[in-house]
Specification:
about 270 residues, alpha+beta, 2 domains, 8-stranded mixed sheet, two-stranded antiparallel ribbon, PGBD5, transposase activity, PiggyBac transposable element-derived protein 5, PGBD
């Protein structure tokens, strides 16, 4: 039920980077596409991917995507086209979060919780008084709330002002953020949920991004192909860990990938460790 829209971390091959000279690194071309995913924030399973090409130079090019929040909304709608009517709760970053998009999703029974930025987000329809920082100093954990129907705009202070837009959580429900040095910091439940599920995605990136297949062809479609294959293998491993087979033979991600390749190639597994 809990999912997040984001760009997954795609690591470069560390061996390739280590052997490159500074001149070769400067000459390397940047990827000509942007990869977005809709991902389960509880298991890490990637439900859907969306590839946005830089080539073409039209209004939907990657350069325009970075500068226009409405094009981020287009990406979000494409990723959530099969999610309507299932009461999903979608977490979004500042570039996607907007009142118009969240209201449109609510009509499709998709509920949202997003971090809002006055610089990166589309703030159309939001009260200006909540977008400006108050003049009086605030203590950590203090927050202000404005509501419109089921939609809540939360301004929460923790060494800086953080704004959240949500129609998935009641603003009166209390939560807590636990910091190692500061201890517990009170906050609305929406803030706690956003932090918890985004932190899981960071752990997924740390664990699985190293297993993306490093392939550097000239053709963009080949790069997209290998990234999609990498995501499929990671998804397969997540399903394997959720199955009963994992309790019989606990393969690591590296062992699982090795076994998968051998089975696809029809090679007999003679390793004593399997």
């Amino acid at each position: 039920q809990l999912q997040v829209l984001h760009e997954p971390l795609i690591d470069e091959d560390p061996v390739f980077i280590a052997t490159c000279t500074e001149r070769e690194l400067r000459k390397r071309k940047k990827r000509k596409f942007s990869l977005w995913v809709r991902q389960c924030s509880s298991t890490g399973f990637i439900c859907q991917i969306y590839v946005h090409l830089k080539e073409g130079g039209g209004v939907d090019g990657l350069d325009a995507l970075k500068n226009k929040p409405q094009l981020h909304s287009m990406v979000a709608k494409s990723l959530c086209q099969n999610a309507s009517g299932k009461n999903y709760i979608i977490f979004t970053g500042p570039s996607i979060t907007s009142l118009n998009l969240f209201e449109e999703f609510e009509k499709q029974e998709i509920y949202c919780c997003g971090l809002l930025s006055t610089r990166k987000s589309d703030c159309t329809g939001l009260p200006p008084s909540m977008l400006n920082n108050p003049e009086t100093p605030q203590s950590r954990g203090q927050y202000r709330i404005r509501m419109k129907g089921n939609m809540s705009l939360i301004c929460w202070y923790n060494k800086g002002h953080f704004r959240f837009l949500t129609n998935a959580y009641s603003p009166v429900q209390q939560g807590v953020i636990i910091k190692r040095k500061s201890g517990e910091i009170p906050c609305p439940l929406a803030v706690e949920a956003f932090a918890a599920h985004l932190s899981y995605i960071c752990k997924y990136d740390d664990k699985y991004s190293k297993y993306f297949i490093s392939h550097k062809p000239n053709k963009t479609w080949q790069q997209v192909f290998w990234f999609a294959i990498s995501i499929a293998i990671n998804n397969a491993y997540i399903l394997y860990k959720m199955s009963e087979a994992y309790h019989v033979t606990r393969y690591s991600r590296a062992q699982f990938g090795e076994r998968l390749v051998k089975e696809l190639l029809g090679l007999e597994d003679t390793s004593p460790s399997h």
